[in-house]
């Protein structure tokens, strides 16, 4: 094997930021004055699958000697020369660089031994195109609370030359929204105008029937709709011995306990239970009367084709995946 173009100890490396590590590797290759090879011989390879659970062996993050690591995706650099092909992977325990045959045999291993959901997909990009078009704000490496999942690299976020650096680049969408709201609240007049415009846009979307999901509603309408669902669910709990009487919740009444004749056990008075149920039913009728005010809104929501199913609230909308981005092995 020819002498390596890069020494691992001199390469920029950040744990769990493989795409940026490879970008820095390509950048150092482009900026070298003593260029022994052409950058056209280098390709960036993305490894992932639809489930975003890609097994790779011989990784530095593994726990055992022969255990694999499940990455959501992984990025390596491939050098295709006339005599042989070399793989540059800063996260592997294999030699750096490593021949493609050894990397496939030890790190990738055969897809036939994997279950269908874990089989890998590959996308190959020219190194010069990767340098020209790759950009990242690192928002995918933050929790919903804004904390880093892994410590980010010390250098700024990568932005391509043809892309204008936006104000607030490097921040997550939630952080930019919080900063925007803070700027609006600092100016009461601007904040009031923004709220009026947002309210007008919301009403126009409802009028045009463009609201398709409960998540598109504002907070007030969501509360009203959830309350309506709770009441409908409660009305379905009918006691077998008393048709038409809804079963009260446990926290709505606790029947008083009276000692029996022996004084050792406790029994419930039937008269007390009936009176408690009557008082509960009267309070329930008040709730029903207040619900009549929401019927008009509920009807408008139904005409807007909103998903009026409780399961919509319980299930999460899965994140979309760009499956066409990948080319199968």
Tell me what you see in this structure.
The chain has 329 residues and is of the alpha+beta class. Among the domains are: 8-134, C8orf32 fold (Roll); 224-314, no CATH class. Helices cover 35% and strands 12% of the residues. It has a six-stranded antiparallel sheet. A two-stranded antiparallel ribbon has the order 2-3. A hairpin with a 4-residue loop joins β4 and β5. The longest helix has 22 residues, at 270-291.
**Helix fraction by DSSP (H/I, runs of at least 4):** 25-40%
- Poorly predicted parts: 244-290, 305-329
| Mean residue pLDDT | 71
Give the H and E element order: HEEEEEEHEHHHHEEHHHE
CATH superfamily of the domain at 8-134: Protein N-terminal glutamine amidohydrolase, alpha beta roll
Short description:
The protein is an alpha+beta fold and 329 residues long.
Keywords:
alpha+beta; C8orf32 fold; protein-N-terminal glutamine amidohydrolase activity; Protein N-terminal glutamine amidohydrolase; 329 residues; disordered C terminus; 12% strand; N_Gln_amidohydro_ab_roll_sf; elongated; 6-stranded antiparallel sheet
Topology readout:
Elements: H1 18-31, E1 42-48, E2 54-56, E3 69-71, E4 74-80, E5 85-88, E6 98-99, H2 100-108, E7 121-126, H3 127-133, H4 173-186, H5 188-207, H6 219-235, E8 257-259, E9 266-268, H7 270-291, H8 295-303, H9 311-314, E10 327-328
Antiparallel strand pairs: 1-4, 1-7, 2-3, 4-5, 5-6, 7-10, 8-9
Helix pairs in contact: 1-3, 4-5
